[in-house]
Structure formats: C-alpha cells, structure tokens
Amino acid sequence: MRGDALAELAALLADRTRAEICLALLDGRAWTPGELAAHARVAPSTVSEHLNRLVAGGLLVRRTQGRHRYAQFASPGAAQLVEDLAAHADPAAERPSTLRAATAATALARGRTCYDHLAGRLGVGLADALIARGLLDDTAGFALTPAGTAWFAQELAFAPGPSRRPVARACLDWTERRSHLAGQAGAHLRTCFAERGWITGSGTGRAVRVTPQGRAALCDLLSATW
Amino acid sequence: MRGDALAELAALLADRTRAEICLALLDGRAWTPGELAAHARVAPSTVSEHLNRLVAGGLLVRRTQGRHRYAQFASPGAAQLVEDLAAHADPAAERPSTLRAATAATALARGRTCYDHLAGRLGVGLADALIARGLLDDTAGFALTPAGTAWFAQELAFAPGPSRRPVARACLDWTERRSHLAGQAGAHLRTCFAERGWITGSGTGRAVRVTPQGRAALCDLLSATW
DNA sequence: CGCACCCTTCGGCCGCGGCCGAAACGTCGT
DNA sequence: ACGACGTTTCGGCCGCGGCCGAAGGGTGCG
Questions:
Q1: Chain A residues within 8 angstroms (CB to CB) of chain B
Q2: Tens digit of each residue's pLDDT (9 = 90 or more) over B17-73
C-alpha cells in the first residue's frame, strides 16, 4: 500500500486540537462545534475547520439538528482506531481500562443514555419493537402512528408537551449504526421506565441496565426480550 | 488523557516518508537508512532525521552493526499499531490479509529467517538451548564456549571461515524481544538444518517450519522441543 | 595506514497548515 | 418580521517541519 494513505489518516490525529476533539468524542456522544471549541480552548471557527477535515477523512460524520450540527464517529471502527492509538500513546491510562473498560464498553453497547433518551442495543431494540408493532413509522424519519400515539398515552401515560421539540425523532446510534427513538417520546420512555424501576443506571457512567421486572414488563408490553 | 500525547504519536506516522518507512519495516526485517532512503526516494540525511524521530517516539529501535545502523520496530505492539492504522487507511489491502496474514503472522512469529540465520521462537529457542547446555555464552554479547566450538564442529561439521564476520553474534528478535544467534554459526545452523531436511521454508515468505525429522533430531541433539 | 563507504549533524530554504477575527448564512424564538 | 445565536467561510499571519547539500565522524577493507 502507499504511504500517502497512511500518512493522510495519521495526519487527522496529528494535531493537538483534532486529537482533543476525537478524545472527547470517544464517550460516544455527539458534540456540537461550540462544545468542542470550549473543550479544546480554541475559536469555534477553528473547530469547524477541523471537523471538516475529520469528516472528509472519514473518521466522523455530522448530523444536523436545528441550528446545531453534531459531530460523532462515523463507525465503531473509527472510534476503535482512536482508542487503540490513545492506549498506545498513554499506556498508563490503559491500566484501569483493561478489565473495567472492556465490561464498561459492552455495557455501553448494551444500553445507555444519549442525552435524555435511551440508546445502545436497548434503544435500537425498543425502536425496532415499536416499528414491528406498528406504533412507530420509520418511512421518513421517525413518527408515531395513530396507534402509537394511543399506545404511548394508555400504557405510558404520555402526553406531548407544548414544546416545539418533535414528539418522535430518529437518532443515529453510534455503536449500532442504526436509529433509536429520540424526541419527547424517547425522553419519556427513559423517565417513565426509570420511575417504574424497569431500568437502572449501572455504575457512574451513562450505562443503563434493564432490571428483571423491566425485562418482564417489556416482554409483556412489546413482545421484546432483553 | 491529554490530546498532546495522542497527537504526538499520530504525528510520527503523519508524514509520507515516515509512513513509507514504517510500512517497509512491517516485514519484520531490520533496514539500513540507505535502503530506506532508496525505498522512499529521499536523501539519506532525510531518512536519518526521520529515524531519529521514530526512535525518540518509541516506535523504532536501532541496532548498530559494523558501519550499518539497522532500524526495526521497538515492539510487536508498535508494529501492530502501524498495521491497524494501515488496515484502516486502505481497507482493500486488508482483504487478502484477513485469513492469510493472520496465519502468516503466527508462522513468522514461530520461525523465520533473519537475513541468513534463524529467528522467531525457533531462533530464540535454539539460542536458549545452546546457552542452557553451556555451548553458548551470553554474558557479553554471544560467543561460543570451547565446548560449543567442539560441539558445532562435531555435530554440525562447522568450521569458522576466514571471513572477518564474527562466529557468533546476538541479534535482537523482533517478535520475541530477545536475542537469537547470528554470525557464521547462526548462518551455519540454517544451511545445515536445511540440508539435513530438519527445516523447510513454508510458503513463499521467510517463514520456516520444523519438519518431524527436525523435531526429533533437535530434541535428541539439544533436549529442545518445538 | 589510508581510502572508501555509510551514516549523521548542521544550515538554510520553502511550503503546508493551524490559528484567529470579520463577515455571511441559516435557524430559532419573540 | 426581526434580533439573537450557532455555525461556517474567508483572508491573513505566523511558525513548524520536511527537504536537500555540504561537512564531519566512525567503520571496514585493501
């Protein structure tokens, strides 16, 4: 293979600010340019240019939502690459990872929060189940069907608030590469499930675990199994 | 962790010439600056500076031998890092690797030639066995003991040639991170073993396999098992 | 012992690229 | 519709770093 390709890829991470950005993104969240600028202590315009390069290089993708343009990893492989490099660059930070991060990573992949809603395999699985039952329409983004609106109201006591925030919205999942449910309905799932004791935050991070009661309830409610 | 460390590591590979060097070194051989300069099409002085950076960064180590100063990877982990990056930079080149390179890599780690002598676990194991039997002295580099000289002459029909090349020399092994036997005696082991049918070159590369007869003979000769 | 060769260090040139501020664009909220 | 805000593009500055050629060691060979 040509060295140019390798050098080009490495150059993406060979800048302090871009490295800082990728390290921040390693938490799996999607960050806005403004957040990243504050985090890396540079001007927003600078971050914008860096994001352009990282996207062009295939490491990141952008998702535009209102006046925000979130950035996140393009693939688990890209994130993995950054993690490998970071581990080699700072072996000390790897130590606590060896066992803990491995389980933490699988826990995050299993289920986690994404801002205020549920993501990971749990989030994607929920969305799949809702679609399969005809409660969620995924033909153009995500939208609750009439049956879905009724179901949310009856089963989960959900009534859309007056906010302009969309009721249902598709949110691309980093680990699963598929969409999970965000928006008011997505946020309601999280709070409602937590109130009913169906899910618990496991550990300090954003990982989420389904309780035995939750497993039974969800199985009953959606014919879904976790 | 700080982004600086990650950026610094990535910067090592973020240059076309350095990337070319590392890619060349991926074959496990130790290259001279001159060879690398010809390979990368730059002046020797340029390569020299690049090697300085790569060594300072911990990716490479140098081994000086006569008027040559060979460069090779500092550790299997460093080589792995470059391979990971290269695979991500050029996924097409990865395809033939998936199965073949995996087995090839283990084959190389098991036994291979290093210029004209034996390396890998095979080479390191041979050196260990010779030391254990008091035939090879490793207190200051490698040197044949009187018993070793007699043993090489009797068992392997080895007589040192008139060349100025040292009879025994330690050669740092890339995969094993320990020394194997080079020099006239090391080269003789290889040719003699091959003549007797104890080893065969497996495949097109530099991988070497011990034949069943070789296994028995070596076990008999050195109480060593491969 | 001296020549030839390999490699390194040094000095200088040049271009790439990161940084910022100003200005343009689009979205949200009133 | 208008102002506020988040983001991007553009222009310009500056410094880092890759490149080479020349000069200076160290090693091997005759």
A1: 1-23, 40, 77-78, 81-82, 84-86, 88-90, 93
A2: 999 999 999 877 789 999 999 999 999 999 999 999 999 999 999 988 777 888 989
Distances (CA, A) of B9 to B16, B23, B56: 15, 16, 11
Interatomic CA distance for residues B197 and B213, integer angstroms: 7
Burial of B151 by CB count in 10 Å (0-12 exposed, 13-18 middle, 19+ buried)? buried
CA separation, residue A161 to residues A84, A167, A185, A187, B53 (Å)? 44, 9, 10, 12, 59
Q: Provide φ and ψ at A220, rounded to 5°.
A: -65, -45
Of the candidates A5, A13, A77, which has its C-beta nearest B90's C-beta? A5
B43 beta carbon to strand D: under 7 Å:
yes
Distance CA B111, CA B157 (A): 23
Query: Looking at beta carbons, which residues of chain A come within 8 Å of B17?
Result: 3
What are the tens digits of pLDDT across the range B60-82? Answer: 999 887 778 889 898 878 888 99
CA distance A209 to chain B (A): 28
Proximity of residue B191 CB to strand C below 7 A: no
Task: Please write down the HEC assignment for all residues of A148-176.
Answer: HHHHHHHHHCCCCCCCCCCCCEEEECCCC
A178 pLDDT above the threshold of 80: no
Complete domains list, chain B, with CATH: 3-95 (1.10.10.10), 109-222 (no CATH)
Q: What is the pLDDT of residues A8-47, one digit of tens each?
A: 999 999 999 999 999 999 877 789 999 999 999 999 999 9
> Which tokens go with A22?
């990728």
Distance B47 CA to C9 C1' (A): 13
